[in-house]
Amino acid sequence: MLPGFGRDFGERLEHVGKHFADLPSSMEKLAPDSQRILELKRHLQDARGVQRSLESLSNALRSCIPSLENQLSAALVREEYSKLPDEIFAIIFEFAGLDDLQTTISVSRVCRRFGALSLSIPRLWTTIRFKKDLYEDDLPIADALVYAERSRPAGLGLTVEFFCPQLIASRKIPIFIPIDSSTPFSNS
């Protein structure tokens, strides 16, 4: 069926509804009881058949409507988000990613546009956390060097977290390192 069929279908259903609503009064006008009984049986059978069909239709609509709403919502979001300028996303990314490298990495992997945009915002890459405890792996040095290079124009903040299982405590040491273009990055 083509989009837009719902209006015609709705009008037909209203017509059928009016027909069934008028049946009880129109059946009173039939003269002989035997004829009336046959007609009543047929109308009752028709009404039950229509009721089953409408229940089936109602169930199908109940499952169809949320899916259509989700698809429409996703399409509208995609269309509207593509209209937003990169400057708006840059502001959002900065608020979402400050002091959280994992958020920055996740955002940069959403799509090519977000990846290119996040790479163009050095401030997103300025906080690198090295964390050593029983539950997390270390940030690999190679990755830290990549992130440090991305932060070059904005400076670099390192947070080194130490976890001491004997004390069941951790210590954080924040360090901010202003970096200029002559600062070398290497893991040697």
Automatic annotation (TrEMBL):
InterPro entries assigned to the protein according to its UniProt record, in alphabetical order: F-box-like_dom_sf, F-box_dom
Domain F-box, first and last residues per copy: 78-128
Name used for this protein in its record: F-box domain-containing protein
